[in-house]
Amino acid sequence: MKKWPFLFIFANLVLFILFYAWPALLGVYYSFTEYNGNIATFVGLDNYINLFQDPSFYKALFRTFLYTLLGVPFIYVTSLFISVLLVSKYTKGKNVAKMIFFFPWLVSPIVVGILWRWMFGESFGFINSMIQVLGGNPIPWSSDGNFAFLVVLFATAWAGTAFNMLIFIGALISIPKSLYEAADVDGGTAWQKFWHITLPSIRSTSFLVILLAVFNLMKEFPMVQALTNGGPGSDTTFIVQYIYETGFDQLKIGYASAASMVLFVVLLVIALLQFRFAKGGKIDD
Amino acid sequence: MTKLNDRFSTVMLTTALVIVALMYLFPIIWLLLSSLKPGSELFSYPLNILPENPTIDGYVYSWATMAFIKYFANTLIVAIVTTVLTVLASATCGFALAKYNYKWLHVFFICMLATTMLPTEVIMTPTFSVILELGLYDSLAGLIIPSINTATGIFMFRQYFITVPNDLIESARIDGANEGRIFFNLMLPIAKPVVITLAIFSFQWRWNDYIWPLIVLSDPNKYTVQIALRSIVGADNIDWVLLLSSSIISLVPMILVFIVFQRYIMDTSATSGLKG
Description:
The complex is a heterodimer of chains A (285) and B (276). By secondary structure, chain A is mostly helical. Chain A has a single domain (44-277), classed as Orthogonal Bundle (MetI-like fold), CATH 1.10.3720. Chain A has 13 helices and two strands; from the N terminus they run H-E-E-H-H-H-H-H-H-H-H-H-H-H-H. Chain A has a two-stranded antiparallel ribbon with strand order 1-2. In chain A, a hairpin with a 4-residue loop joins strand 1 and strand 2 (40-42). Chain B is mainly alpha-helical and 276 residues long. Chain B has two domains: 2-55; 67-274, Orthogonal Bundle (MetI-like fold). Chain B has helices spanning 2-35, 39-42, 57-65, 68-99, 103-115, 124-133, 141-147, 151-162, 166-174, 179-190, 192-207, 211-216, 225-233, 240-266, 268-271. Chain B is globular, with a radius of gyration of 24 Å.
C-alpha cells in the first residue's frame, strides 16, 4: 500500500530535491564564500557585513518595499472595483467588459513592459502627445524617478487585475442575496451595503488576493526590466533585478546569494505575519 | 421613484464600467494601431490615433528579421511538453496528498507549500550552478524539467480530490483494482475540469516565462519568444518598428488558446480551485 503513494509523489519529490532543496542549500553555502564561477573561497560573514553596508542594496530593498506597499493596495482596489461593477445588476455590457479586463492575463510580462514603455515614451509616447495637444508640458515619464515609478505601478495594476478579478467575482457571486435584501428593507445605502456586507463576506478572498499580490510584487523583475530596465539610474531597480545583476552580470555569486538569503528571510517573515494576521492561516472556502 | 433611481444607477455605473474598460483596452489597441503605421509616422508629433497610411511592412520586416518560426517552435515544444508532464505529476501528487494519510506525506506537502515562498527568482544564482551540474545548460530540457514541479498545480488537484468521496475508491479496491488503475481509470477522468484549468494555466506560464529561459539559454537558436523580444527591447537603441510588430506576433498563440478555451478560463468556479 505504501508503495503507491510514494510512486505518485516520486516525480515531484525528485524535482523538489533537485531544483529547490539543492539550490537553496547551495545558496546558503555560496553566501559564505567569495565565488566568481571558478573557485569558492570561504569568507565567513563578509558578504552579509558588506551587504548591510551597501547603499545600492538598501535602495533596491527599500524601492521593492515601497513598490509593494503602493502596488498591492492599488491592485486590490482596482480589481475589487472592477469586479463589483461586473457583478452589479446595474451595469450593461458585462461580458464584453470582462473579456477586456481579462485580456492582460494573456500578455507576457515582457510585452506588458513594452506596451507601457510605448504609451509613456517621453518624446514618442501617446500620453505626452495628448498632453501637448491639450496645451500642457510633456512629463518626464522615464527620466524622473518618481514618474517612472508611477508608470511601473500603472503597468502592474493593468497586468494584475485579470486574475484577481476572476477570484473576486467568484467570491462576490457567492454572497447570499438575502443579506442585501434585508439591508434594502432597512433602507441601507449602496455604500453601507458594500462596507457592512460585501467587504466582510469576501474577507478570506481579500486575504488570498493580498497574499498573492505581495509575493508577486516582491519578486517583480521581467516586466520592469522591459519597461524601465531599472532606471532612471537605479530608481526602479527592485531586489530580484539587483540579485540578477550582481550574480550574473558582475559575477559576484557569493554576494548575490547573500542578498537572496536576505530576500528569502523577508518573504518568510511576511508570510508568517500574514498568516498570523489571518488567525492561524485558516482560509475558509 | 425607485424606477428613476434604478435608471440613474444603471447609467452611472455603466458609464463607469465603459470608461474603465476603455482605459484597460487602450494600451493594447494603441500597440496594434502603432504596429500598422509606417516608420515615418511612428514618431511624428502630435501623434494620430489612426495610421494615415496603414501598412503591414512592420510585420514583413519582423518576420524577415526575427526567426519567429524557430522561436515559436522552441516555445511550443517547451510549453506543450511541460504542460503534459505538469498535469500528470500534479494529478498523481495531488491525489496522494488528498487520499493517503502518512506523516511523510504531510511533511512533503509543507515542503511543497514552502516552494511558493522560495521561488526560483530568489535563488537564481545557485539554481544556475545546479543546471550546469546536471548538464541542462543551454538545452530545452533545462526549461522543461525544472518547470514540471508546481505547488499551485498540486494544490489544485489536492483540493479537488479531497471532495471526491472515499467510498468510490474503497469500492474499486474491493473490486480488486490496484491503486494505479484506480487513479488512471477512475480519478483522472473525474478530475477533468482541473486537468483543463491547470493545462491552460501551465501553457500560459510557460509561453510567457522569462526567468528560466533567461538563466538556462544562451544559444540564439534555442531562444523562446520572450527572450527574443527581450533581445530587441534590451538593445541600446530600440528598433520600435521591429519591436511593435514582434510584440503583436508574440501574442497570437495565447489569443488563439484563449479563443478555444475561453469557456474554461472564464468559468470562475473552475478557477476558484486555485483558492482555498
